[in-house]
Amino acid sequence: MNKFDDIRPYYDSEIPAAMQRIADSELIPSIVNYLSPSLDVETFRNNIRKIKTIEEFQLSFLKPFAEIIFNRTTTKLEWSGKENISQQKPYLFISNHRDIVLDAMILQYFLTEAKHRTCQITFGSNLMEHPLVVDFGKSNKMFRTERGGNRVEFYNNLLHMSEYMRYVITELNESVWIAQRNGRTKDGIDATDPAIIKMFWMSDRVDKVKSLANLNIVPVAVSYEWESCDKLKTLELYLTKMNGKYEKKPGEDLNSILTGIMQQKGHVHFHVCEPVSEDDLRQMDSMPGDYFANVATLIDQRINSNYMLMPNNYIAKDLMDGSSRYSSHYTAEQKEKFLQYMKWMDEYPTFDKTLMKEIFLGIYGNSVR
């Protein structure tokens, strides 16, 4: 047994069996109906069964699937900063996290468009519940990140993931994508968890500067005009405030995945930031305070300075503040559209409307800070 068999994606040799399971899934008719109602379900199943490798799955199936999603749910899809990365080098991409699946999916799409190799992707064990999600994920270079456990199990899981990521980058010469924190940003405030940076270092502790430099860290700024799962995030934060905690219902993660994919996103922009160099890391080491927190702050600065603020962000911030300070960044029509969209909260007449509004506006407006 390979040391990483418990978390790694599928090998090419495992793809035919995975494709058979995907083709046989009871959800395939629903997927076909979303992609193209005129498509024959059995033809679609047979085309999936013909796929033999990860690359074939990504390029002949997932890429066209992604393009259909983008065409239906985005008005503009763009990326910048491509000059900051090379086709000859693997990277550790670390991004702000707004959507469970799309953040990494869109980055993969941009990488293939620029003739880069696709990267391996972290995927929480809590999301790997439905068999179809598992097969889709592991066929798409997603590797399992364990959640929960006692202190010893938690530590060992972090070490195991750190070792695997370093193995992928330094030995397999493949890039890796990971979110800047555990779970999506739900309040509009993107912040890198220093524990994530410390986890990177755990697999090579001789020299922390060299340890991180060898991973070629590249921050990525992810910006959506219409926030993924904004209604679901509002409800979760509202119920957490009211009840002191939030209990996920069975199937809720799958619902969030599907909602994020199908929801309208408008203008989407990704920026590949300047890589974190060894000189940067050495400078962080010479600064006062915790080294890993310093590196996290540097990553935050690069992500936040390249985050593309949209009209909705400025509208929400003005509504939060009861001002028109940022009115030059949006039109009256855009503001009216945003106000009309906010009427979805009328569906919850027993909820505290003031609190719901405060949470919802924060999802969009806090980014302006």
Plain-language structure description:
The protein has 369 residues and is α/β, with parallel strands linked by helices. The protein has 2 domains: 12-308, Glycerol-3-phosphate (1)-acyltransferase, CATH 3.40.1130; 313-368, no CATH class. 50% of the residues lie in helices and 11% in strands. It is built from 16 helices and 7 strands. It has a 7-stranded mixed sheet, sandwiched between helices. Helix 6 (131-139) links the parallel strand 3 and strand 4. The longest helix has 20 residues, at 54-73. It is globular and about 60 Å long. The mean pLDDT is 95.
Layout of helices and strands, plus pairs?
Layout: H1 15-24, H2 28-35, H3 41-49, H4 54-73, E1 74-80, E2 92-95, H5 102-113, E3 120-124, H6 131-139, E4 142-145, H7 151-170, E5 176-179, H8 194-201, H9 208-213, E6 217-224, H10 230-243, H11 252-262, E7 266-272, H12 278-286, H13 291-305, H14 311-321, H15 332-341, H16 353-365
Helix pairs in contact: 1-3, 1-6, 8-13, 10-16, 12-13, 14-16
Low-pLDDT residue intervals, each spanning 5 or more residues: none
Main sheet: strand order? 1-7-6-2-5-3-4
Terminal residue distance:
49 Å
Largest sheet: 7 strands, mixed
By DSSP, the count of extended strands is 7
Estimated structural class: alpha/beta
Regarding quaternary structure, what we see is single chain
In the CATH hierarchy, what is the class of the largest domain? Alpha Beta
Architecture of the largest domain, according to CATH?
3-Layer(aba) Sandwich
Q: SSE string, helix = H, strand = E? A: HHHHEEHEHEHEHHEHHEHHHHH
Percentage beta strand: 5-15%
Shape label: globular
Look at the structure and give the mean pLDDT.
95
Q: State the domain count.
A: 2
Might you state the CATH topology name of the largest domain? Answer: Glycerol-3-phosphate (1)-acyltransferase
Q: What is the helix content?
A: 40-55%
